[in-house]
């Protein structure tokens, strides 16, 4: 009884207003509070006399995060926005995509190799991480592994004493940029492939080398690709994933099914216009994917598994002398449809047979970066007068203020009062502006919430007119529409899983995007390989993943 009294007086006195406000929010708590509230006049009179001073003593806490939420490393990964994929190996010298595993190591001789150039190109064009194919399906290793001689050790490059993973790790560290590795499960060279125990030991041995000798690794990228009529075998994914997390706790693991990051489901780099980071790992198998599920995620999923969009700057994943890179405006379009749809863009830029990124690719990346900068460096709403339908917290508390949406980064946000019937942000600009891009971000560390939103402008006839609507937001949503002109805007959230929180709102002018339909060859996975090869699905036991 005394204990209850104590709870009563501190709770009521310090926080009376927010408690009333939340009456209907969480029912069991509100009932308890309601009881306290009713009993206040009878039991708490002495302490209530000091309530006006203590009212100002404590701040309103932030709203509850809504599960699932990202881990610290998933969050760090997502903030990277864009990464470079580097497909490099014997295929670069044999003009192939899937090496047979029989190419002579003597073909591998990138005489001008300079990993610092790869890092420089990535960094200068706004990419935050590099992911290298340390071993592709052909089994040739770009580091001097102890477990096979099918590696740089047997090549003429640096007289067999080179280590590409080591050189890239060093260059990335020097430039302060993250490193990820791809280690193909399917190995067409290794004789023990197909013998389940032996090959799993071999694979874990190689993985351990990569995760212990090269410093901080930020991402481990695995796929379920495998040719037809190849030896059958089981991969011990549960052991692999546990070991990876043990050796590199900061690394996210990418596969079709997570655990940390999922494949988007196509190799065109394009996410669904609705894209949740919410997902059920147990619904998907590695290699046995449901493309629609990967592309959209799951609004009621219980795992946080954001998507990565892999796509190559060229038609193939490896460098081929006959191929040319996509244009900068195509890359910009892909950016809108990947990084602009709550995903990370993983753009493959394959080094050429000299061991350098080709000049024409560098040129395209430079143009792409300039386009992006020229569009997004100026938020036309930067000096707007901002008001909201409601704002959480008290007047002098700026933590939930609508102006937070004009600050960069996801950690400052606008929060509405609880239990509202409408969620609107009003922007009065200092003058009439023309724009055709909307950028919205949610503070995803609090969970992904928004399910439907739209933007309206006040037109010349003083009528509110809808400009664009969308569904999910997540880390970042970019939307393009035909150019409009206005001074008064309102951003309306129509539906949300919980009280919506908005960390960033911007309007921009994009003079470069072509609104005609850019047609991609809508590739299914691995159709970049020639038509006589195709994927075989690898069964994956999910009760094993679930224990991670
Ligand atoms: C490689 O070996 C050749 C001859 O054995 C030698 O001339 C050359 O300097 C060596 N190169 C390197 C990078 O060690
Ligand atoms: C994902 O899990 C939730 C329960 O946590 C369930 O309601 C939903 O149906 C699942 N999604 C799929 C596609 O199975
Ligand atoms: C590779 O790219 C570099 C430019 O970065 C260029 O000098 C070199 O000639 C290219 N090599 C080939 C084989 O195209
Ligand atoms: C913003 O503009 C609208 C439309 O002119 C006006 O009704 C509203 O009062 C303005 N808001 C503020 C805070 O000045
Ligand atoms: C936008 O609104 C229209 C009309 O209400 C609706 O048919 C459409 O599905 C909405 N689109 C999105 C992406 O929400
Ligand atoms: C799409 O594929 C077809 C045939 O595979 C090819 O002829 C065409 O050039 C491709 N288009 C683009 C835009 O790559
Ligand atoms: C396609 O791949 C198969 C098997 O690797 C090979 O025999 C064939 O020559 C390839 N065809 C083309 C057109 O590259
Ligand atoms: C999956 O793994 C669990 C636990 O390791 C095991 O009990 C189950 O039999 C496996 N299921 C299949 C289909 O292999």
Task: Provide the CATH top-level class of the largest domain.
Answer: Alpha Beta
User: What is the distance, rounded to the nearest whole angstrom, between the alpha carbons of the first and last residues?
Assistant: 43 Å
- The succession of helices and strands, N to C, reads HHHHHEHHEHEHEHEEEHEEHEHEEEEEEH
Tell me the number of structural domains: 3
Q: Total strand count, please?
A: 16
Outline the biggest β-sheet: 8 strands, parallel, barrel
CATH fold annotation of the largest domain: TIM Barrel
CATH homologous superfamily placement of the largest domain:
Glycosidases
List the uncertain runs.
1-54, 515-548
Please identify the structural class as seen in this structure. Answer: alpha/beta
**Beta strand %:** 15-25%
Average pLDDT, all residues? 85
Number of helices: 14
Percent range of helical residues: 25-40%
Family: Belongs to the glycosyl hydrolase 29 family.
Pfam families: Alpha_L_fucos
EC number: 3.2.1.51
Keywords: Glycosidase, Hydrolase, Signal
């Amino acid at each position: 009884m005394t204990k209850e009294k104590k709870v009563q007086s501190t709770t009521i006195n310090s926080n009376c207003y927010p408690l009333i406000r939340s009456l209907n929010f969480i029912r069991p708590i509100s009932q308890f509070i309601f009881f306290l509230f009713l009993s206040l006049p009878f039991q708490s009179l002495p302490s209530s006399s000091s309530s006006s001073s203590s009212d100002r003593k404590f701040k309103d806490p932030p709203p509850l995060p809504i599960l699932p939420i990202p881990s610290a490393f998933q969050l760090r990964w997502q903030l990277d926005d864009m990464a470079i994929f580097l497909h490099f190996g014997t295929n670069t010298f044999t003009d192939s995509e899937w090496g047979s595993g029989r190419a002579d190591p003597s073909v591998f001789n990138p005489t001008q190799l300079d990993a610092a150039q790869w890092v420089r190109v990535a960094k200068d064009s706004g990419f935050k991480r590099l992911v290298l194919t340390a071993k592709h399906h052909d089994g040739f290793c770009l580091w001097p592994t102890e477990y096979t001689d099918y590696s740089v050790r047997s090549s003429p490059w640096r007289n067999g004493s080179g280590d590409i993973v080591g050189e890239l790790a060093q260059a990335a560290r020097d430039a302060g940029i993250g490193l990820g590795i791809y280690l193909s499960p399917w190995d067409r060279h290794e004789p023990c492939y197909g013998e389940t125990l032996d090959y799993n030991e071999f694979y874990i041995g190689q993985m351990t080398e990569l995760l212990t000798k090269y410093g901080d690794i930020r991402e481990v990228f695995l796929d379920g690709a495998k040719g037809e009529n190849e030896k059958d075998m089981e991969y011990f994914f549960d052991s692999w994933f546990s070991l990876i997390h043990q050796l590199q706790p900061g690394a996210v693991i990418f596969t079709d099914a997570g655990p940390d990051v999922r494949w988007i489901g196509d190799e065109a780099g394009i996410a669904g216009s609705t894209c949740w980071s919410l997902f059920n790992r147990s619904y998907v198998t590695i290699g046995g994917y449901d493309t629609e599920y990967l592309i959209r995620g799951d609004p009621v999923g219980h795992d946080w598994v954001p998507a990565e969009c892999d796509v190559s700057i060229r038609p193939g994943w490896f460098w081929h002398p006959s191929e040319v890179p996509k244009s900068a405006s195509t890359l910009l379009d892909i950016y809108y449809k990947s990084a602009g749809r709550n995903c990370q863009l993983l753009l493959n830029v394959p080094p050429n047979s000299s061991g350098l990124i080709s000049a024409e690719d560098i040129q395209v990346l430079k143009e792409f970066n300039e386009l992006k900068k020229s569009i997004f460096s100026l938020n036309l709403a930067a000096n707007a007068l901002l008001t909201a339908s409601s704002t959480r917290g008290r007047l002098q508390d700026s933590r939930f203020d609508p102006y937070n949406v004009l600050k960069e980064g996801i950690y400052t946000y606008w929060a509405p009062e609880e239990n509202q019937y409408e969620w609107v942000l009003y922007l009065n600009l200092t003058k009439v502006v023309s724009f055709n891009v909307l950028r919205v971000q949610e503070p995803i560390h609090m969970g992904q919430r928004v399910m439907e939103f739209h933007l309206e402008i006040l037109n010349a006839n003083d009528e509110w007119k809808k400009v664009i609507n969308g569904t999910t937001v997540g880390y970042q949503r970019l939307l393009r529409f035909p150019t409009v002109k206005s001074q008064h805007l309102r951003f309306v959230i129509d539906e949300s899983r919980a009280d919506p929180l908005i960390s960033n709102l911007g309007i921009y002018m994009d003079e470069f995007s072509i609104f005609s339909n850019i047609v991609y060859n809508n590739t299914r996975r691995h159709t970049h390989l020639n038509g006589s090869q195709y994927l075989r699905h690898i069964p994956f036991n999910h009760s094993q993943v679930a224990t991670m």
